[in-house]
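Subject: sequence -> structure tokens, single chain

Hey, anyone have a minute? Need the predicted structure for the following. Not urgent.
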Amino acid sequence: MTVYPSPRFQAERTIAAARVLLAAASLFALWMDPGELSQYSISTIGMNWAYLLYAAGLAVIIWRRSGVPGSPLAAHITDLLIFSGFQYLTPGSSSPFFTFFLFSMFCGALRWGWRGTLITAAFVMVAYLSAAVVRPAGPAEFDLNRFVTRIVYLVVSAGFLAYLGLYEERLRGELERLAHWPVVAASGTAQGTRQILEYAARILNAGRAVVIWEAAEEPISTLAVWSPDGFTISTHAPGDLTPLLPPVLERGTFLCATSLSETSTVLVNDGPGHLTTHTGIAIHPRLSAVVGGTGLASAPFSTARVSGRVFFADLDTHPEAIPLTELVAREIGGSLDQMAVTHQLQELAVREARLRLAQDLHDGVLQSLTGIRLELHSLAASVPIADAPLRDRLVALERALSIEQRDLRQFIDSLRPRAIDAEAPASLVDRLEALRERISLEWNTPVTIRVSAAARAASTSTASAVPLMVHEAVVNALKHASPSSVAVTVDAVGSQLHIVVSDDGRGFGFRGRYEHAALSASRTAPRSLFERVEALGGELAIESRDSGSRVEISLTA
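Reply:
Had a minute. Here:
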């Protein structure tokens, strides 16, 4: 099995090879021209040979094994001590072995990043200054110009290496956060969009994130805004938010270090490596109101199903923000595309399930009800004329069953894909009137339903939901309270639809008035009715007395 070295182990291999090369090059230079080291040549060459053998042995061990032998810290400290020894055995601050100290700083940077660079630089500075103070035998061996130059060289090198370490650490962190991009395909559009915008804002350290996009098959624009104060999402008709940007900024990524204005200067990335400047960033007024802030980055995205643009405001602007914004924008576009695909697949699955249910109801329950109706009709026809009450009761039951069949057919038709010229759905008044007639026939109890003029304009979805809740509330009263009559009123006040079902029966198993929160905590309300109301975002209240009960439902019309 092939074993691929880890980045840390690969760094150790690189350091080991460089260590051998450095020791060999130093030994070769001493052999070619001892120069000012002639008086120290024996000890220096001997120590250099020893270091070359040590470097070669360590390199062989590291390259032959699949793991790092021992601790890199031990090898690092050994190098620093040996390099300090070279400085003390040679002309101190003027020693040509000064390059070994630079090698040790590079090793610290490779191993531990900017922290390793700074700690190693501090040790090197102390060792070099000590060699300059302690080792020189006389003024002739101390070169002030070389000493100052090397001090500055150490400081500058350490600064650059630390900066590169910080830069690498930041890039590594950004790449790791991009690699852990949240999967939101199964989430709802609002919840998933909020999650990806919040995560994207954290990657860029932005105080606000805004995304606007259009789906390929939908003629509307969706605008989502995230900030630490909250999240909003809204839809807009075509043309409401166009033109979004000036033509020069429509296709490119841009960066603005100041607040938005017609005199702002932006840095625009029109293509790979092609940066230009543009003065003036007149964006759409609606978008300008939600973006705001100082420091702005924006990038477009486009997939097979969605296309749009993302904005990040209140961020620290730097040139690296442009490619990072582009990467984040692509991730956002990919997530929105995944949510669009998931939504389409869910719609297809629901449609198939509805078709199967419609077929099962038509072939099963509806046919059974037809058989029962025929049996009831036959029984009613066979009853003697003298027993008129029984015959009338059977006929009433047959009529009630006929109404149930009609409603079931309407329900089955609602499950199937509607034709373009399909009939308009029945109004709320018609549905409730059919409900009243059916309940009166089934239970032989008078039921009155009054719908105010304001409630007649309820939306189609509400008109479909209200009869089911009224039916459940009325039947619950008839089953458990044995009332002599039931009254239903439907009224609308503003955007709220109020439904009241009252009866004169025995009431519920408690006395007093319970609001929605109390019903949820006590679980005394009819669970099916409570869950149906809560699913529609409404509220349920029940008042129970010895003289009857009152069920109140509030919904958004």
